Amino acid sequence: MNNTNNKTKRHFNVIDILILLALLAIAAFAANYIVNDMFSKELAEVEYILRLDGVSENDIMRLSDGDPVFANASGTTLGTIREITQTEYKKAIYNAQTGRFVYTAIPGKYTVHLRVNAVCTRKDHQYLIGDYRISAGTSPDILLPFLLDRAEIISVKPILQNSLSDTGAPENLSAPKEVTE
Predict the structure, then answer these.
(1) How many CB atoms lie within 10 A of CB 160?
(2) 155: β partners
């Protein structure tokens, strides 16, 4: 016979505990995402030095002040060139006579330093442009109209808002105080 007076008691089992833990983890992740991503971002203008190694003399003429620097994969603008300087490109080459590596200037090749200004998102003490991190020692995948051996960011510094002139351009580009991260 059916016993309708008998109340069945529900006990917590392993599945119920796992569901509760999963819901708690989702709630904690959502709260962390909202607090860290929505409120900790701020825009910052930075100046960084991009070193290009192994650029030919003819290709240097293809760069000019005011040109944008693009990311290779996405076409994201990584800033605007403000100044271009060049030096001889030196590379460590093995000398068989001495049995050592010697830094030798490579004829027709130059190291080009680009001073680039960019507006970045500052988050967790990092500067980001989209998914690209702007930090000293990183090698961004950039798109240029010529071939080169290597590109590397060698220094990054924030541009303080009170150091801007009334035209919006930084006043002293020739003598930066470099800060490496």
Answers:
(1) 10
(2) 49
Which candidate, 105, 108, 112, 107, places its Cα nearest to that of 60? 112
Structure tokens at 1: 């016979």
Query: Could you read off the pLDDT of 83-142 as tens digits, one per residue?
Result: 999 999 988 889 889 899 988 888 999 999 999 999 988 887 788 888 788 888 888 888
H or E segment and range at residue 33 = helix 14-39
- Conformation bin of residue 177: beta by default, left when phi > 0, alpha when psi is -120 to 50: beta
- CA 128/CA 134 separation, integer angstroms: 6
Residue that is written with structure tokens 């016979």 in the block: 1
173/75: higher pLDDT = 75
Position 167 pLDDT exceeds 60: no
Q: How confident is the prediction for the chain on average, in pLDDT?
A: 81
User: How far lies 68's CA from each of 15, 43, 59, 146, 181, in Å?
Assistant: 56, 19, 16, 15, 23
Token pair, residue 42, equals 């701020």
